[in-house]
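Support request, please re-run this one:
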Amino acid sequence: MSFPSFGPSTTAEEVAAVFCDVIRGKNVLVTGTSLNSLGFETARAIAQYANLVVITGYNAERLRLSEAAIKSEFPSANVRRLNLDLSSLAAVRRASKEVNGYPEPVHVLIHNAAATIGHFKRTVDGLESQIATDLIGPFLFTKLIAAKIRAAKSATYTPRVVALTSIFHEYAQGIDLADMEHPDPAKYEPFKAYNQAKSADILFMIELSRRSCGAIRGYSVSPGVALTNIQLKPESLDIFIASEIITPDLKPNRIKLSWKTIPESAATTLVAAFDPRLDDKPGAYLDDCNVADIAGPNILDADLPGRLWSTIENIIGESF
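Re-run finished. Output below.
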């Protein structure tokens, strides 16, 4: 069967329509699904076709609003809420226990949630907030529900895990594994931490695919730049304005960056989650709805994915 080509202006809804037959019958879990987010748009586009969409977040009221918005558009959609705070290892363990109690397997896990690019902040576990929320929490969550994911495998289908990264991973000057374990506020720079976390997400998907030996396929996705609620959080506004990413009147700075709409930004996630043409490309990195080269030599060390994996295992205190 042939499918159309996609590009930077493709929307999530367009991708979902093309792969509607692939999505049907699938159970999909999407993290970070507050209104005005890429995760919400991802869940919304999937919900009209999927058997089940699990939406997650750490704020129960925002989760309720997201569910209501999806159900108002697609009344027959099967939407389930899951409270999940990826910045807390204990909260991740609680949420994973709930998922493991579901009667259904998980065909697709989409790691969309991320911490805002803010000032240095420690989590309850003493980790730096961005690396904890963007990488370590998702790693532990994936590990703890891996049996649910593997249960979706059949003779004709292999489950997928998708992690959102960023085109800005190319600016990461390596990944400081020692600082990941023992964060030093004096070394912290907001965008440096972001770039490292997003680089690590790419390596996580590469190593997950390798270690799964065909049981799970991992993909990393650069969604592009879109104005969402994460840039408009009070604790990060000064950073985004000072970096000229958004203007003082809270508008996208279109002189400095090329911006996408939220539906356009969510499209690549759906390609990674459902496009059968990726079946023979586990571990691939996608940008603008297509497989792309990882930019920047700093994360291409062949040993780095394995060392990153071991470092995270040390942090969470258990092996995957």
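Strands lie at 27-30, 52-57, 79-83, 108-111, 160-164, 217-222, 285-287, 290-292. DSSP finds twelve helices and eight strands in the chain.
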